[in-house]
């Protein structure tokens, strides 16, 4: 069930700090998403390509869809005609596929590079060492339909808030460094997506520009998605 009161107070808090809100609607049906849309929310996040592609035509066309999950290359085609941002680019082959499908659709797809900041080995994302080589390949090849707008990261699932804050600060440092080294003159490199229901306050403290919040708005999910 949508928690309208919590949505409103969260949105207000984020607006005051100039932080964007991605409402993570995975597992929730279109009626529920519409309820949140009616509160004024425009950006929604999904982590499965099929699910997103099914919801998209049933919902208002001014919604900005952000893809936030692990993306297989053969699924890019399903979301390329409409997705606004893919937050989880973690390998060059995926970037190439996004470029190809965006070109076919004659549009530009905004992307974030997902960086692995958590202790948890099962999480996706590039290690900080791999980051530079991915970014340089981007800049050397000619990507006309894919725009690297910043970084995304997921902290370790832990109650140790100091640890989470350190991980977020580490990602902030990577972001600042890349900005300086590679994108100093590019105003589109400006998004740092970090923070979810349990840790968005710490993420903002560390300099997040975009939080991805699901259960705080929509209530608990039936499965973890
Ligand atoms: C599900 C999910 C979220 C939102 O999680 P909540 O704890 O429900 O806020 C954020 N980011 C990613 C990548 C997710 O998969």
Q: Would you kindly provide a written description of the structure presented here, covering whatever features stand out?
A:
The protein is built from 9 helices and 8 strands. With 225 residues, it is of the alpha/beta class. An 8-stranded parallel beta sheet has the order 7-6-5-4-3-2-1-8. The structure holds pyridoxal-5'-phosphate (PLP).
How are the SSEs placed, and which strands pair?
Layout: H1 4-16, E1 20-24, H2 30-37, E2 43-46, H3 49-55, E3 64-67, H4 76-79, E4 85-89, H5 92-104, E5 109-115, H6 128-140, E6 146-153, H7 161-182, E7 191-193, H8 200-205, E8 210-213, H9 215-218
Distance between the termini: 17 Å
Shape: globular
H/E series: HEHEHEHEHEHEHEHEH
Task: Tell me which oligomeric state these chains represent.
Answer: single chain
Report the biggest beta sheet as strand number plus sense, adding barrel if it closes.
8 strands, parallel
Features of the shown structure:
alpha/beta; binds pyridoxal-5'-phosphate; 9 helices; about 220 residues; single chain; globular
How would you briefly describe this protein structure?
With 225 residues, the protein is of the alpha/beta class. 40% of the residues lie in helices and 18% in strands.
């Amino acid at each position: 069930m949508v928690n309208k009161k919590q949505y409103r107070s969260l949105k207000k808090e984020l607006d005051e700090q100039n932080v964007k809100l991605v409402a993570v609607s995975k597992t929730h049906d279109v009626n529920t998403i519409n309820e949140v849309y009616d509160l004024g929310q425009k950006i929604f996040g999904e982590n499965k390509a099929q699910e997103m592609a099914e919801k998209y035509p049933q919902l208002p066309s001014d919604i900005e869809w952000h893809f936030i999950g692990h993306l297989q290359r053969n699924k890019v085609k399903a979301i390329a005609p409409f997705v606004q941002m893919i937050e989880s680019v973690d390998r060059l082959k995926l970037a190439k596929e996004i470029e190809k499908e965006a070109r076919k659709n004659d549009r530009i797809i905004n992307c974030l590079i997902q960086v692995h900041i958590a202790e948890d080995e099962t999480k996706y994302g590039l290690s900080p060492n791999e980051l530079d080589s991915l970014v340089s390949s981007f800049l050397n090849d000619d990507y006309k339909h894919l725009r690297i707008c910043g970084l995304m990261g997921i902290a370790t699932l832990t109650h140790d808030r100091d640890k989470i804050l350190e991980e977020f600060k580490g990602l902030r440092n990577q972001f600042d460094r890349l900005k300086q080294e590679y994108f100093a003159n590019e105003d589109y490199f400006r998004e740092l997506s970090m923070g979810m229901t349990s840790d968005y306050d710490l993420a903002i403290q560390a300099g997040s520009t975009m939080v991805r919040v699901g259960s705080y708005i929509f209530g608990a999910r039936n499965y973890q998605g």
